[in-house]
Write a structure and sequence with these properties.
Layout (H helix, E strand, L loop, with lengths): L11 H5 L20 E12 L2 H8 L8 H13 L2 H4 L8 E11 L2 E12 L4 H19 L7 E11 L6 E2 L18 H6 L1
Helix pairs in contact: 3-5
Amino acid sequence: MRKRPTRKPPSKLHTRLSHYQSIGQVSMVDVSAKPITTRTAAAQAFVTMPPVVVRAVRKLKTPKGDPLEVARIAGIAAAKRTAEWIPLCHPLQLTHIDVTARLCQNGVSLRSTVAAAAQTGVEMEALVAVSAAALTVYDMCKALDKSMQITDIALLEKTGGKSGEYRRAVNALHANVGAKSIKSTKSARRAK
């Protein structure tokens, strides 16, 4: 029989991370003593794509339909199931989820905002929302070009809770996210 390796004592990093027990095992944090406060978070992602794919999306000439609208719905649905994606996340009753998809010159810019009255934050829900939306854009356009890349997944801001507010510095964002926007409403895309 194989002998189980002995656990090393927790490092200084482990003692600062709330998901680690004293012997280094992971655990879900007990938030029952925390007060319920309003929590919000916003996240971003970007899907870079070659001009031929951007033109197809703009003209609604993609094989599976409108990737921007389907990505929005996928992001909203995924945010509601974050605890199923991320093992140590608490299941939360979200009070607001919004996912926007904006067609730009070099791809699709995605942004999510999430809110809840909860004992823990909604950062992971916002990040899961843009991640699922970006994967959906890729899935819906991959028949046109598989060289697309999902980039710039990042938390932009969060409010509420003991740690207070966080805002990502503007200069920390990748150039893609600020890319020049192309009108992306359905009517504007159909008119072209």
